[in-house]
C-alpha cells in the first residue's frame, strides 16, 4: 500500500489522542506501532522495529521516544516534534492540575489518609518493576553480580552516574560476546539528518539554559538536574525513579521521601511515562514555571538523542561492544530499583492495613491488573481504614 505521509498537525492530532489514553508506560509502544504501521501505514514493520530497538538502547522514556521516532520517519524533524509534544501534552496537563490540587489540599485529613495508603502501593509498584525488569534482564550469575554491585553502591550513596558507568564497564569486562542478528538491509528507508533545524533546536536549548543560569538560578539547577536524570535513565522511564529520588531527596533535600512518593503515585495515575513526576516536583519547588521547566528538561535529552541518532543507528546497531555496555547498564537498574524500593519502604508507617495494601497491590500487579484499578482500590482502603 502506498504511503500518504501526514502533515505535522495531523501527526500532532493522532498522538494527542493516543497520549490521552497512554496508561501502561512502555506497553504503549504496542499501540504506537498499531497506529503507525497498521492503521496509518506511515512506517513499514522493519522501520518500526529498528526504531523500537534504538529506543531501548538509549536512555529515556521508551514510549515517548517511540512516538518521536514515528514522527521523524513520517514527517521529518517537524513531525518528530509534533508527535513528541502531542503524546506528552495530556500527561503534563493532568499532572499540572494534580500538583496544583496537591499543593492546596495536601494537609487535609482525607488527603493525608489517601496518600498514606498509596505510599504502600508505590512500594508494591517498585517491587513489581524490579521483579519484572530483573526477570527479563538477569539471565546468569554475571548479570546478578552487576545488579548486586550496583544496588550496594547505590545503598551507600554512590552517585548514580558513577554506578551506571561502572556497571557498563563491568558489562564490557565480564559479559560474553553476544550473538547479534543484524537487520535486513534494503527494507528501511534512509533518514536524512536535518542539521540546520537540529542545530537551531540545540541553540534554543543552550540559550534557554543560559538564560536560566543568569536570570533564575534555582530554575537552572532544576532543569540541569532533570536533564541529567533523563540522560542516565537507561531501561525506560521507570529507571528515572531511583535517579530522581537520589538527587531530589538524598542530595539536594528539596522534598522529603513521602512527598516524593506521592508524586510517584500521581505519575502512575496519569497517562504517559512515570517520568512526568518531574512536573509535580517542579510545581512544588518553583510553581507553574518550575513545572514547565522541569517537564521540558526531563524530555529534551530523549528527544535530541532519538532525532540525532536515528539516521545513523543502522551503522552501529550490530556492535557487540555497545550491546555489552548496554546490558551492564540495564543490570545495574535492577539493583537500583531494589535499593530505592527499600528506601521508599522506610518512609511508610507500616501496620496491618499498609501491609495488606502493599501485598494485595503487588499480587494484582503480578497478575497484570490495570494500575488504575489498583490505585482506586488503594484509595478506597485508605479512606476506610487509615486515620
Architecture overview:
The chain has 387 residues and is an all-alpha fold. It has one domain (91-385). The protein has helices at 8-19, 28-39, 45-57, 62-105, 109-137, 141-155, 160-174, 195-215, 217-232, 240-251, 257-269, 277-309, 313-316, 320-345, 352-366, 371-385. α9 crosses α12 (277-309) and α11 (257-269) crosses α12 (277-309). The chain starts with 7 loop residues before the first helix and ends with a helix. Residues 182-186 have low confidence and may be disordered.
What tags apply to this protein structure?
387 residues; mainly alpha
Any low-confidence stretches, pLDDT <50, length ≥5? 182-186
Output the helix-strand order: HHHHHHHHHHHHHHHH
Shape: globular
Can you count the helices?
16
Q: Gap between N and C termini, in Å?
A: 61 Å
Give the helix level as a range of percent.
over 70%
Class derived from helix and strand content: mainly alpha
Largest sheet: none
The structural domain count equals 1
Number of strands: 0
How much β-strand is present in the residues?
Answer: under 5%
**Rg over alpha carbons:** 21 Å
Secondary structure blueprint with pairings:
Blueprint: H1 8-19, H2 28-39, H3 45-57, H4 62-105, H5 109-137, H6 141-155, H7 160-174, H8 195-215, H9 217-232, H10 240-251, H11 257-269, H12 277-309, H13 313-316, H14 320-345, H15 352-366, H16 371-385
Helix pairs in contact: 1-4, 2-4, 3-4, 4-12, 5-11, 5-14, 5-15, 5-16, 6-7, 6-14, 7-14, 8-9, 9-10, 9-12, 10-14, 11-12, 15-16
Amino acid at each position: 500500500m502506498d504511503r500518504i505521509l501526514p502533515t505535522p498537525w495531523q501527526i500532532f492530532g493522532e498522538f494527542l489522542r493516543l497520549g490521552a489514553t497512554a496508561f501502561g508506560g512502555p506497553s504503549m509502544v504496542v499501540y504506537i506501532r498499531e497506529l503507525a504501521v497498521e492503521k496509518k501505514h506511515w512506517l513499514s514493520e522493519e522501520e518500526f522495529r529498528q526504531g523500537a530497538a534504538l529506543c531501548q538502547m538509549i536512555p529515556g522514556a521508551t514510549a515517548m521516544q517511540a512516538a518521536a521516532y514515528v514522527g521523524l520517519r513520517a514527517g521529518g524533524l517537524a513531525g518528530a516534534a509534533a508527535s513528541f509534544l502531542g503524546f506528552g501534552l495530556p500527561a503534563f496537563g493532568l499532572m499540572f492540575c494534580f500538583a496544583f490540587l496537591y499543593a492546596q489540599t495536601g494537609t487535609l485529613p482525607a488527603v493525608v489518609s489517601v496518600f498514606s495508603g498509596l505510599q504502600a502501593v508505590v512500594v508494591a509498584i517498585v517491587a513489581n518493576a524490579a521483579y519484572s525488569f530483573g526477570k527479563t534482564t538477569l539471565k546468569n550469575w554475571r548479570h546478578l553480580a552487576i545488579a548486586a554491585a550496583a544496588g550496594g553502591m547505590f545503598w551507600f550513596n554512590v552517585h548514580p552516574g558513577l554506578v551506571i558507568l561502572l556497571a557498563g564497564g563491568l558489562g564490557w569486562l565480564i559479559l560474553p560476546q553476544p550473538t547479534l542478528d543484524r537487520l535486513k538491509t534494503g527494507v528501511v528507508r534512509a533518514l536524512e539528518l536535518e542539521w540546520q533545524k537540529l542545530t537551531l533546536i540545540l541553540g534554543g536549548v543552550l540559550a534557554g539554559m543560559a538564560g536560566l543560569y543568569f536570570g533564575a538560578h534555582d530554575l537552572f539547577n532544576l532543569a540541569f538536574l532533570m536533564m541529567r536524570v533523563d540522560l542516565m535513565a537507561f531501561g525506560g522511564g521507570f529507571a528515572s525513579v531511583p535517579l530522581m529520588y537520589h538527587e531530589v531527596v538524598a542530595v539536594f533535600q528539596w522534598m522529603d521521601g513521602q512527598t516524593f512518593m506521592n508524586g510517584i503515585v500521581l505519575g502512575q495515575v496519569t497517562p504517559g511515562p512515570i517520568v512526568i513526576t518531574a512536573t509535580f516536583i517542579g510545581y512544588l519547588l518553583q510553581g507553574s514555571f518550575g513545572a514547565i521547566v522541569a517537564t521540558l528538561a526531563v524530555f529534551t535529552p530523549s528527544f535530541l538523542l532519538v532525532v540525532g541518532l536515528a539516521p545513523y543507528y543502522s551503522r552501529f546497531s550490530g556492535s557487540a561492544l555497545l550491546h555489552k555496555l548496554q546490558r551492564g547498564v540495564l543490570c545495574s537498574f535492577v539493583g537500583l530499583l531494589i535499593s530505592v524500593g527499600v528506601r521508599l519502604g522506610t518512609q511508610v508507617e507500616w501496620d496491618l492495613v499498609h501491609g495488606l495494601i502493599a501485598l494485595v497491590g503487588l499480587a494484582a500487579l503480578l497478575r497484570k491488573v490495570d494500575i488504575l484499578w489498583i490505585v482506586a482500590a488503594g484509595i478506597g482502603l485508605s479512606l476506610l481504614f487509615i486515620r
